Structures are given as C-alpha cells and as structure tokens.
Amino acid sequence: MVKKIMRDRFFLAQKAEPATEADKQVVIDLLDTLRANSERCVGMAANMIGVKKAIIVVAAGPFQFAMINPVITKKSGEFETEEGCLSLDGVRPCVRYQEIEVDYLDENFKLKHGKYSGWTAQIIQHEVDHVNGIVI
Predict the structure, then answer these.
(1) Cα–Cα distance between 110 and 89 in angstroms, integer?
(2) Which fold has domain 9-131?
C-alpha cells in the first residue's frame, strides 16, 4: 500500500529499531511507496512512511530491492556532494563514499553481503543514515 511521506524532522531523527519477520508488510508498503514516487525518489527508509524500523529500499535502474537491518561494514573513496530528500525541502551538503560493503537481510530475511559503488552506493548510504536517525 502506498503510504504518506513523513516530514516530521523529530520523528526522522530517531534511530530505527531492528526489523523482524513480523515487519514484512512494511517492506511491501515501502516498495509500493518508492514505486509511486519513482519520478522524484530513488530510495526510501521505513521512517519516511512513519515506521521506526531498520528497513530501506533502493531503486537501481529498473530494479527495486529491500535491505533489512542494513549495516555498512566497509567504505572507501570519500567525496563531498549534495543531496535532497523526499521528506525534506532543498538540498544539503554531505560526505559519501564511492564504494561500500553492506550486511543485510533481503526481503525473505536471508542474510546477504553486498558490494556497491557509485550512485547505488550513495543511495544506500543516504537511506542507512535515515535508519540511524541521521538527517542530512
């Protein structure tokens, strides 16, 4: 189900709780909401739809995928950039990394380890900040 976008900065600044298999509907709702906003959004975190769980979704070209309880375990190639956010107005400066490695659960709650670079890595870092209560 497509959900309303949360814009409350106080709520967005709260650290998310670990997700469990009981949160499968949140994954579906988050993917539905990402697809509904695809012309202006490439990633979302559960807190953006009012759910304080560590779930993110990412649009990488034609593919959308979920990462549950994501943890960035390695990063390299620091650079400065500016990003916008569907939950906030305007753009803000931030520091990102060109290459990252992430441990997470997929939408079937199977443990995964992924290596990402470039734009996809930047999206993941932005959404992981969200679940950690970091608002750019």
Answers:
(1) 35
(2) Peptide Deformylase (3.90.45)
CB 86 within 8 A of CB 37: yes
pTM of the model: 0.96
- Tens-binned pLDDT, residue by residue, of the chain (136 aa): 999 999 999 999 999 999 999 999 999 999 999 999 999 999 999 999 999 999 999 999 889 999 999 999 999 999 999 999 999 888 999 999 999 999 999 999 999 999 999 999 999 999 999 999 998 8
Greatest Cα pair distance in the chain: 38
The closest alpha carbon to 87, from 45, 26, 131, belongs to 45
Structure tokens at 19: 């997700």
Nearest to 49 by CA among 81, 77, 11: 11
What residues act catalytically? 127
